[in-house]
Amino acid sequence: MLGFTIVIPFLTYFIQDLASNQGITDVGSRDFWVGFVIAIYALAQFLFTPILGSLSDRFGRRPIIMFGLVSNSIFFIVFGLSKSLEMAIIARFLAGAGNGNIAVARAYIGDISEPDQVARRMGMIGAAFGLGFMIGPFLGGILSDPASGIGGIFKTAFWENNQYLLPCIFSSILSTISLIMAYFWLEESIHPDSQSMDSNESTSNSITKITSDIIGVLKIPVISSLVLVNFLFYMAFSMMHGTFILFTAMPIDSGGLGWSEMENGWVFAFIGLLGAIIQGALIGPLSDKFGMSKLMIWGTLLAGLGISSLPYVPSDMAILILGPSAGLAIGNALFSPTQSSLLTSESVARGQELGMIMGAQEGTAALARIFGPLFAAFLWSETVQGSGIWTFHTCFRVAGLIFCLAFIIQLKIKSSEVSNSEI
Q: Who contacts 35 (Cβ-Cβ below 8 Å, separation ≥6)?
């Protein structure tokens, strides 16, 4: 997760530089590529997660997990050395393909855990993700442009020409260390006799199965609404991934904040810290007091207010961006665990196959992380130099409207918990 989030503070600047160097001088056209590169990573994960999962059933979890670590170690450095958009896109796609092994890591924990241990051990992965999201952007901001930011041995022409290589090398080193640890200490979790020998069929049909599961789930009352709400939430939330820094990096005279990678790294670390505190310590007591449905609704509302108000932060009081950022962080931290818990309980109450339901949810969330950045990139490119109501604010307003739609759908959901007079 450190490797995934370490690129957040500098990816926007890096892609803008690559596009400009290739003669893409129009601001809208240049910035569109930021959203495209973000989406291509999510697309690779969507395509390769089921493929790596089915391969792990045949060849074991250990080699597939190690494959993902090798992929990270190589393609982060390739990305940092990229001198063209094409090279950066290929590097991010291949890194995303390797990181499709996250689902395999979850399956590994399921293999080695007793039923009463699964929830706690999955929570440990969630805590690791939260910690990575907090520390990764901070490190990405510090290590970017070391010739100017750090100086000393980095004050050379090489580092001046490769401003974003150092955080990529750092991420690659982390993956290499993990690979060495996996090689020596990670045991296989699947017994050879239990490994499937029919991986060709399962691999070729895996994406088709996800699609059919999604279609089937959308026909089930209440569950379909919860899955749709999750899709809308993460589509709107992922619209922020590229446009947040496009706004903060925009020159002050154009309406932005004129921020560098370092300042953006601090804000994303703040977002990660809030999320880790809420999901790690507060979500349980809050759920007991207010109920999961209310927390899910409030999470959607706070995230919508946060993203809608982002572009109105004045440059002379940039510290105010912590308010919208807190709305996004708290909203996501409240929504994610409560929505998943409600979906699980509703599936069990209705006698549905939980694996199919959760697989469909993961599939729609992956699609949301693809469509969200692409849609945001399109809106931004069409309006960033506009006037009147069609300005760079438009993308954030539209994301807020999508959150609003998710909020309205939630108010109409009559789940088992709601039926018990919680709301």
A: 242, 243, 373, 374, 376, 377, 378, 380
Residue 112 one-letter amino acid: I
CATH of the domain at 22: 1.20.1250.20
Q: Quote the number of domains for the chain.
A: 2
Last residue of a domain, one of 129, 163, 191: 191
pTM, entire model: 0.83
Per-block mean pLDDT, blocks of 10 residues, the chain (423 long): 81 93 90 92 85 80 90 92 94 88 77 70 70 83 89 91 93 91 88 52 59 76 88 93 89 90 88 83 83 90 94 92 93 86 78 69 84 92 85 92 94 59 40
Q: Fill in the DSSP letter of residue 279.
A: I
**Final residue in a domain of this structure, among 191, 217, 232:** 191
SS3 percent helix, strand, coil of the chain, rounded to 5, is: 85, 0, 15
Distance in angstroms (rounded) separating the CA atoms of residues 235 and 295:
19
Range of the domain at 82: 1-191
Contact indicator for 10, 261 with CB cutoff of 8 Å: yes
